[in-house]
Design a protein that fits this description.
Distance between the termini: 39 Å
Helix content: 25-40%
Radius of gyration: 31 Å
Largest sheet: 8 strands, mixed
């Protein structure tokens, strides 16, 4: 079965001048459909038909036939039917062969993939169709105008998912049997549709379409490799979710190893594709997904692991990595760790924090002359159970400060016992909180661990006392030099007296608390720009790497 692909490309265009030669992601528009036809497993020959010597000159460098369109077929009112018929007749005459199937491939659909094209050809062949045309789902509430009067074009005003399906023709291709290609038609009797997704079905008619296509063609496959469990907490999961939300629109997949159901379900609930696997199956999965970018948020990586990712052709980005693989990655972000002389691929400091979008949407707290509420939060797990230590101090806190309320936030992984019957009525206890920023809004002072929550409290302008829960948290330097935070050290060396005295000092000294508040506000402005800064760094470095790779 011989198949001919015909690509009609006029030199003139009313909407966008020289549209078919306009550059889209460093290639002329016509390039993409020629590429699809060349990469198809089923198309035997390709002919480009045009009235433009410039277009034909470009196409002559590729493995296609050329047809200089007769002047009678080059005006604005000529439809595609006679153009396709002319190109078919010309090609068959010159090649001295007959084709069984003819496919019209319009250059104005550059986002269609050769995979979709081949699937359409296979559907056409397997179902013995006469004609197959592509469509996109256009199910919406429509209005129509008849005799200058508007009226709804639907029977009942329903949510989109309950409306009758409607489809809009896409110009990506039209497949038809040779016998139905005529000067005035390319349709047989047995017609069916092939549904393309919204991206692949995009037709470029306007300059705005060009802008959309330019963005869509740069859509990336991004795979996050992340761990979350009771031992390491949920910070890595929350950070990657924030970053994934910032990269929305790209093709995103999460791969999780050594992770608990809580963390896996959290990502699923946000609508992302999650694959839970064993470490020894990781690279088989990556081969199947074939991402452009792999983002690791798994603590310290090994040199060989990063090297294998790079050898597989992936651009590798790591977060919070102090392992020997860090210097081998393409890009490393460590918001919690600082180095005086970082390698060129490292980005250190609080300006690279992925602040949750809920905090981006909220303004900092207003300063109260008399503090009323203390907030206590020690992450998803609170492995050292500092929360209980603070609850034991609650009577002294209430007696020796003007504080009237203590707000306690327990993470989803908190497994220690609290006797609620012994809890003072002035203490609120919350667990598995979705609105941290809302509770923080009520606070004047905070006590927390030395992890990501430090940045959230800073973004809210809250004077904070920080206690590291493990050796790794002692390496987070932000709390040590930020004058809006009082850092007490690691929990095993911090006494009840240390904690109580710090709370008293900040609560009872208006000038100290005010200074801490303003220092937090100053850092807040920087932290709130961190997500944008990270995404810009990943994007610019990826495309630079990609360009250099293509040059070699």
């Amino acid at each position: 079965m011989k198949i001919l692909g015909i690509i009609p490309a006029r030199g003139g265009s009313k909407g966008i001048k020289r549209k078919n030669l306009r550059i889209l992601n460093r290639k002329p528009l016509i390039y993409y459909q020629i590429k699809n036809a060349l990469e198809s497993k089923h198309i035997n020959d390709i002919v480009v038909t045009s009235d433009s010597d410039e277009i034909l000159d470009y196409a002559s460098s590729l493995n296609v036939y050329l047809r200089k369109r007769p002047e009678s077929l080059a005006d604005d009112i000529t439809t595609l039917d006679p153009v396709i018929y002319d190109a078919l007749e010309y090609t068959e005459l010159n090649n001295k062969k007959k084709y069984d199937i003819v496919i019209t491939l319009q250059p104005t659909s550059p986002l269609m993939s050769p995979v979709s094209l081949d699937k359409a050809i296979e559907k056409f062949r397997d179902e013995n169709l006469d004609t197959l045309l592509p469509v996109v789902d256009a199910t919406h509430l429509y209005w129509k105008k008849e005799n200058d009067k508007l009226s709804p074009d639907y029977e009942a005003r329903l949510n989109r998912q309950w409306l009758p399906k409607k489809y809009k023709e896409a110009g990506a291709f039209l497949i038809t049997k040779r016998e139905f290609v005529k000067e005035d038609s390319r349709f047989g009797e047995n017609v069916d549709i092939f549904i393309l997704d919204e991206t692949e079905g995009l037709d470029i008619d306007t300059e705005m379409d060009f802008l959309i296509a330019e963005t869509a063609i740069k859509r990336l496959k991004i795979t996050f490799i992340v761990n979350g469990n009771n031992d390491i907490g949920m910070g890595h999961v929350y950070r990657t979710l924030t970053l994934a939300d910032g990269l929305l629109g790209n093709d995103i997949t999460f791969i999780m190893t050594d992770s608990g159901e809580t963390s896996i379900n959290l990502i699923k609930e946000r609508g992302y594709n999650v694959i839970s696997t064993k470490k020894d199956s990781l690279f088989n999965l990556l081969d199947d997904i074939n991402p452009n970018i792999v983002i690791n948020d798994i603590l310290d990586t090994k040199f060989d692991y990063i090297n294998k990712l790079k050898d597989s052709g992936f651009f590798v980005v790591n977060f919070e990595d102090l392992g020997d693989g860090a210097d081998n990655a393409h890009l490393v972000f460590n918001a919690l760790y600082e180095k005086t002389n970082p390698n060129p691929n490292h980005r250190f400091g609080y300006e690279y924090e992925c602040l949750n979008e809920k905090f981006l949407l909220n303004e900092p707290i207003e300063f109260n002359d008399v503090p009323k509420a203390l907030i206590i939060t020690f992450g998803g797990v609170d492995q050292c159970n500092v929360t209980s230590k603070l609850l034991n101090l609650s009577s002294d806190i209430f007696n020796q400060t003007p504080l009237e309320k203590i707000i306690v936030i327990l993470g989803g992984g908190y497994r220690h016992n609290i006797d609620l019957s012994q809890i003072d009525s002035r203490i609120e206890i919350h667990q598995k909180v979705d609105n941290m920023q809302k509770l923080m809004k009520k606070a004047d002072i905070a006590v927390t661990s030395n992890g990501r929550t430090i940045y959230e409290l800073t973004s809210m302008g809250i004077p904070t006392i920080s206690i590291a829960q493990n050796d790794r948290e002692t390496l987070h330097l932000f709390a040590r030099y930020n004058k809006g935070i009082k850092y007490l050290g690691i929990s095993c060396t911090v006494t009840d007296e240390d904690i109580l005295n710090s709370i008293k000092a900040i609560s009872n000294d208006d000038n100290l608390r005010r200074k801490m508040y303003h220092k937090q506000l100053k850092s807040s402005a920087v932290i709130k720009n961190g997500l944008t800064k990270i995404i810009d760094e990943i994007s610019s470095n990826y495309w630079k790497w990609k360009h250099e790779k293509n040059q070699n």
